[in-house]
Structure formats: structure tokens, C-alpha cells
Design goal:
Blueprint (H helix, E strand, L loop, with lengths): L14 H21 L7 H8 L4 H15 L8 H14 L2 H12 L23 H20 L15
Helix pairs in contact: 1-6, 3-4, 4-6
Amino acid sequence: MSNIPKITTSPLKDNHYVDKWYEIANYLNNKIILEGEIAINQRDIWKRYLHEFTNEDWIYFCDLISLITDHNFRYTLQNNRDALVDALTKLQDPVLYSQQRWLNNMGATKQEIKNVLDIPNKGKSVSSTKSTAWKMLMSMREIWNKICGIDLPNNDSSKGKSI
């Protein structure tokens, strides 16, 4: 029996995920406006979002973004599509689910691992799960901004900009 979550409703019908996507994009955009470029792997972003998402959350976000972007490629760049494919591939990998379950059952980490994209980077088989999560979150912000017509690159030139 697989532990991979099954999506039973459309994420477009569950406003929670659209609202959460807005919250994430807004938080990251405000961070860029106040501080400039978001450096990779900032702890506050991991604590606020990436450590908190469940596998089901990630699948809903990926499904939601796929629904919107499959017919509207103008909202995505190749790196956004690559991040989405990478996330979906890892979210369907039963080996990662087994590893997540084992780490949690053994108490091998300081906190519960809520999603396969948050498995600690130990060993070649999972070395890129956290980078996948980070790239997907940054892609979510970029796609949201494209949909909403917000021009706010993740660099220091955006510091102090208004949107």
C-alpha cells in the first residue's frame, strides 16, 4: 500500500491553497522589497513554510500550479517547469516516503519531517530534496507574480520598490 497522498478534490475548489499561495508570494515579495535579494535557504522561510508543509500540501500546490500553467505557458519559465516536474517526481517516489517514515519512527531528526522534500541532505539518494523544495517555493512566487503582473525580480535592485 502506498503512502503517497491522493488528491480527491480540485485545488481550485479549495481556496485554502490559493490563499496560502498568495500569502507565500506576498511574504517573499515583501521580504525582497525590505531586504533585497532572498539568499538561498533562509531559516525564517524554512521555519514558516518549508518545514510546515505536508506531502499533501505540496501535491495540492503542484496540482494547482499545473492546472493554471499547463495552458498558459506565458506564466512560467523553463526553470519553473523544471522545478515543478522535479517536485512532482519526488512527491511520487515511494523510497522517499519510506525514508521519511523511517526517520520519523526512529526519532532521527530534531523535529518531525512533514514532507519528503524536507528530508535531511544525507546520502546521494536524497541530496536534492531540500533544494527541490526551495526551488519550488521560489517558482511559486515567480509564477504568482507573472499571473498578477508584478515585476519584482529576486535581486537587490528590487529593494525599496513598490508593487
